Amino acid sequence: MNKEDRRYAAYVQILREELVPAMGCTEPIAIAYAGAKAREVLGNLPDRVDIGVSDNIVKNVKSVVVPNTNGMKGIEASVVSGIVAGRAEKILEVISEVSEKQKEDMKKFKKDVPVNVSVLDNEIVFDIIVILYYRDESVKVRISDYHTNIVYVEKNGEVLVDLENADQETVKDECLEENGLMDKRLLNVKDIIDFADSCEIDDVRKVLDMQIYYNTQISEEGILGDYGANIGSTYFRYYGNDVRNRAIAKAAAGSDARMSGCELPVIINSGSGNQGITVSIPVIEYAKELSVSKETLYRALVISNLIAVHLKTGIGRLSAYCGAVSAGCAAGCGIAYLQGGGYDEIAHTLVNSLAIVSGIICDGAKPSCAGKIASSVEAGIVGYHMYKNGQEFKSGDGIVTKGVEATIKNVGRLGREGMRQTDKEIVKMMLEGKAECL
């Protein structure tokens, strides 16, 4: 791909937008970010807090430990952490620097200050509204569409930021270009491979070096520590230490740690740390095994990251479709590239793996995400090995249809439209008798 091609600049920008650091599960951190921003505008610790969130935010916040809070969970804990200790300028690392005193202050604030949580009844999948009160003053901050997208800020009735009405269709339909971000509809598998083959490494080196370093750290921590259900270390104990198992186990281990409050940052993909870990660690492990050059690893990570983003574009940031599936299948594509694969190998790997694991549900962020990651990475590897063995799932086999892009479109339709009611039922199940999770 020629550097003057508009797609070249777009693909570089997509990587820079999507591969950013975050500490902790990104939905609780988005709440913390909203809380920190609101407190910054208010200028004081509030004496009352109201927070409204969409169903999918509830689903992805209730069961994960918020880092740097001494083990607190839930929506209330997330917003309190941002209000008391957050630094809004650090965005998704908003609570990465918290003192022991601030942790105690969080506990006291949570006990002494009323925090009223409600579920927003609208059609926006990703929506957070935080309102802080101090005496006769108030501040309202709203984040919609994606984790850092502040669309509205109001103080004492004066509107400071208003992007809510700028493009309502963007907010309600994430298949369209997201407000303020590069249009991901420019992505397709053929062009992604062309870009990976031809891009100047210096244009992608910085974000990929951070991904390699951060995500390897949390993966190793997940193996060494005692986190969640210890899916990663279970794989090592029972299934051996070959490269295939290392790729699966280490990706799962990163999620083990992250879902259970590990205070190490990750480089995310498509708004998710789990997806960022899943799309990178298996490729890194195979690169070590194959002794490929650092440049080849970079190019394989470009493949896996951009294919994961491409898959998620039609599904949306949050849905009932597990994002680990997209990331694990994309990792299989990166692994195929490391072994000399071109368009045919990568396209067949992707279709084969999607046929195996599409439909795994997302029932929120929690320890079992690591198990879903393990299954998805395994499917990505099997999808590649099927192709090498002369096997494939063919058009008409379920949702598989002719051509990789058409199959990707079907997967997007499944995740976004077909599983919409599933999403609602999942949230209902999670909330029945579980009001304390808020």
Automatic annotation (TrEMBL):
Residues 91-427 form the Serine dehydratase-like alpha subunit domain. One of its GO terms (biological process) is L-cysteine catabolic process to pyruvate. InterPro entries: Ser_deHydtase-like_asu (IPR005130), UPF0597 (IPR021144). GO terms for molecular function: L-cysteine desulfhydrase activity. Belongs to the UPF0597 family. This is UPF0597 protein HYG85_07080. It comes from Vallitalea guaymasensis.
